[in-house]
Amino acid sequence: MDNVARLLKESWTLVEEHRDRLSGHFYARLFLLDPELRPLFPVQMTGQGDRLLEAIITAIHTVDDPESFDEFLRSLGRDHRKYHVDATHYETMGVALLDALRSTAGDGWNLEYDQAWRDAYAAISAKMLAGAAADDDPPFWHAEVLTHERYGLDTAVLTVRALQHPLRWRAGQYVSVEVPRYHPRVWRTYSVANAPNDDNVLEFHVRTPQGAGWVSGALVRRVKPGELLRLAAPMGSMTLDRASERDILCVAGGVGLAPVKALVEELASYNRTRWVHVFYGARTRDDLYGLAGLQDLVAAHPWLSVTPACSEDDDFDGELGDISEVVGRYGPWTAHDCYISGSAPMVRATLRVLAGDDVPPERTRYDTFGEL
């Protein structure tokens, strides 16, 4: 597997700067091989290639970590049940992917790379199919919007109830969401912002830049209580290690607060001995939409502290600066379990701070909005 991992990463350098061409060739070849696959995808394919490439990149980066590789792919297989794909679809996608890689890489491609991708794709599809076959849950859940609250122009907090079947998730995980009324067959992932509960209610924090984000835009500006969404199987490993006795550091940027809030809520159900430090950053005071809720949790739980920070608000009476810089001022965090959630630049900066504190990588878990 080590040699396969090397060949995958080496060959990926031939195509990574030509991702648009790679994804365009892949989908053109896929739909030519099997036109019946086209209705499984959104009418507008804008951004679809990015999600394909994110999955490929994640698989490449975990192939030399068998445990993570296995769990990621089994989860991905369970998640892909929402597309109603089967074994024959996987075979067709494998042919299209190899064809796209060869075409995009050009003269740099060789037989070793070709065989490595064949072997890797066979392992990937087998594990995804096994994950799908082992799942007794429905391909997706219908969920009714219960509440919807706007914060400014671009942020909303909404709660939904999954209908008909229990939806089991762990604090810190995320689910794919579809808004069928406005954008059918377009799915986006959002972290669940509350701990599991018997009422089958999930909370989401959604932010959308103005003029961007179809699903996020609909969730922020158009969806109303009573409407129906679809939710896919939970994924993600930014979950609590209940066996650990170490104190906990949580770092959240913007709507990255969602999984951190869920982790704190789960800790509130059993924690008595671990100190939990939450750092919550945004551009301005108005962007700290969840601060009041965090302060309520602090008032109820003596083991919890919250440090808010603003990077572009000189009048803010708390910490000033990027949240990663603020975390660095309060360190070192060498003896903590660390959880980070936010934009890719924010996560990268915070990981550098923790690396400077010699925090072991296995004690750091993160969830990023976009590629690292």
* CATH architecture name of the largest domain: Orthogonal Bundle
- Overall form: globular
- The CATH superfamily of the largest domain bears the name Globins
- Structurally, the number of domains stands at 3
Query: How are the strands of the largest sheet arranged?
Result: 4-3-6-1-2-5
Write the layout of secondary structure elements.
Elements: H1 2-12, H2 19-33, H3 48-62, H4 66-79, H5 87-105, H6 111-133, E1 141-151, E2 155-162, E3 174-178, E4 187-191, E5 201-207, H7 214-221, E6 228-231, E7 248-253, H8 257-268, E8 276-282, H9 291-300, E9 304-310, E10 319-320, H10 323-330, E11 337-343, H11 344-356, E12 364-369
Helix pairs in contact: 1-6, 2-3, 2-5, 4-6, 5-6, 10-11
Cofactor: FAD; heme b
Family: In the C-terminal section; belongs to the flavoprotein pyridine nucleotide cytochrome reductase family.
EC number: 1.14.12.17
Report on the architecture of this protein.
With 372 residues, the chain is an alpha/beta fold. It folds into three domains: 2-133, Orthogonal Bundle (Globin-like), CATH 1.10.490.10; 141-231, Translation factors (Elongation Factor Tu (Ef-tu), domain 3), CATH 2.40.30; 248-369, Rossmann fold (3-Layer(aba) Sandwich). The protein is built from eleven helices and twelve strands. It has helices at residues 2-12, 19-33, 48-62, 66-79, 87-105, 111-133, 214-221, 257-268, 291-300, 323-330, 344-356; strands at 141-151, 155-162, 174-178, 187-191, 201-207, 228-231, 248-253, 276-282, 304-310, 319-320, 337-343, 364-369. Strands 4-3-6-1-2-5 form a six-stranded antiparallel β-sheet. The protein has a six-stranded parallel β-sheet with strand order 10-9-8-7-11-12, with helices on both faces. β8 (276-282), α9 (291-300) and β9 (304-310) form a beta-alpha-beta unit. α2 crosses α5. The longest helix is centred in the N-terminal third of the chain and has 23 residues, at 111-133. The chain is globular. 39% of the residues are buried. The mean pLDDT is 90.
